[in-house]
Structures are given as structure tokens and as C-alpha cells.
Amino acid sequence: MDSYLQVVTHPFLWIAAGFVVLFYLVQMLVSWDSSKDDQSRHLRTSPSEMLIRWLKGNYVPTILLTTALLAILALGFYLFDIARAVHNMVGLLLDQTRDIRAGEADLSDSSDTLRDLAHGSALLLGVLAAAATIFFSVIRVWINDRNIRATEDGLVTDRINKAVEGLGKFTEFKTTQKLAGGSFQTVEETKPDLVVRIGSIQALERIAEDSERDRERIVVLLTEYIRENAR
């Protein structure tokens, strides 16, 4: 029982559990969208929404720093001693089993010891397995983040290109003009499509709200567009 209590009260076990909880908490905050409709974008941002927005853009460095801190704490709390403790517990478990088979130990007296040793070994093996996979999990998170950012950049670029095409949209229409000799002539004319252009401006505004990195470029683009069309 003392070995079992020593295992479940070991700081590293709870540090690993806390890291897992923190990891899923950050993932939940990142995936949660606090803006339920378009009107909420124009409301005052609360501190919690600012924190969620910051985590969405910096959750990978947060996880990397947390992992580094966890590694330092793991070394501080004798990770190698835990591995040796697992080895010793497995050895004691084998010795107890051998004594029972040889008839040198009573099964009723050794049942609690065997159960405690088995529980302690399983817990420590689980902690060691979790610690071994943390590094690869962090690498997978970093790779997934790069892929997601690359996909988002491509989508934003496509949205900007489509909106820019809409800024130069013209509508073609035909008019009938009467000539001097009394005959009529059909003339094709073009004029700016205001509906499409206004929609493109609103689309660029939406992109600027969603992507802070492209906001300055969109402002410069709209400024040049207004300057050219104001002449």
C-alpha cells in the first residue's frame, strides 16, 4: 500500500495529468468561436475574447513552452528514478509471484502487496509512456499548425484575388441611337457594376477583419482604388 500511495502522490504524475488537461483546454479555446454573428465583430471585445483570439494565433508557442517547462520539471522530479522504481516494482512483483508458486508465501497475505505493486507499476508505466509521446505530439501539433496556416493563407489569397477582380467589374448593355438619316443603330456600352464593386469592397473589409496580417495591404489597395476612381 505504501508503494501505491507513493506512486499516486508523486508530483510528476500530477504534472503530466495537468499538462494533458492544459493541452485539451487550449485546443478547446482555439476551436471555440466567440463571434456567433457578424454584429458581434463591431461590439466591444471582452478580455476573455481577447485571450481566446491571442491563443488562436499563439497556441503552438504556448504548447511548446509548456512542453519545455514540463521536461524541466520532469528532470527536476527524478524521471530516471521513476524508471528505476518501475524496474524495482516489476522485480518485486515477479519475486512475490515466484514465492507464491513455490509455497513460500501465503496468497491471502500477498494479495494486497501484489495488487499494490501491479497498480503502481501500471501507473508509472503509463506516466513514462505519456512522457515519451509528448515530444512527438508536440511535433505533430507544430506540423498541423503549419499546414493549417498554409491552407488559410491560400484561401485568403484566393478571396483577395476574387474581390480585386470584382473591383474592376463592368456591366455591358445595349442602347439604340437614332442617326441623322432617321435610321437606328444599336450601340454596346459599358458602365461600372456598382453592386459587384460594393460587394467586393465589403468582402475586402471582411478579410481585413479576419486576417490582421493582410489588413495593411487591403487598406493600401482600397486607398489606391479610391484615388484612381476619384480622378
In short:
This protein has helices at residues 2-8, 11-31, 47-76, 79-102, 107-167, 194-210, 215-229, and strands at 170-178, 184-192.
Descriptive account of the structure:
With 231 residues, this protein is mostly helical. It has two domains: 2-154, no CATH class; 168-231, no CATH class. Helices cover 76% and strands 8% of the residues. It has helices at residues 2-8, 11-31, 47-76, 79-102, 107-167, 194-210, 215-229, and strands at 170-178, 184-192. A hairpin with a 5-residue loop joins strand 1 and strand 2 (184-192). Helix 4 runs antiparallel to helix 5 (107-167), helix 5 packs antiparallel against helix 6 and helix 6 (194-210) runs antiparallel to helix 7 (215-229). The longest helix is centred in the middle third of the chain and has 61 residues, at 107-167. The radius of gyration is 33 Å and the shape is rod-shaped. Mean pLDDT is 71; it is low at 33-44.
End-to-end C-alpha gap: 87 Å
- Detail the poorly predicted runs: 33-44
What best-fitting shape do the alpha-carbon axes yield?
rod-shaped
Question: Gyration radius, to the nearest Å?
Answer: 33 Å
Query: What's the total count of β strands?
Result: 2
Main beta sheet, described?
Answer: 2 strands, antiparallel
Number of domains: 2
What's the assembly state of these chains?
Answer: single chain
The structure class reads mainly alpha
Range of helix content: over 70%
Strand content: 5-15%
- H-E order: HHHHHEEHH
pLDDT averaged residue by residue: 71
In the sheet with the most strands, the strands line up as 1-2
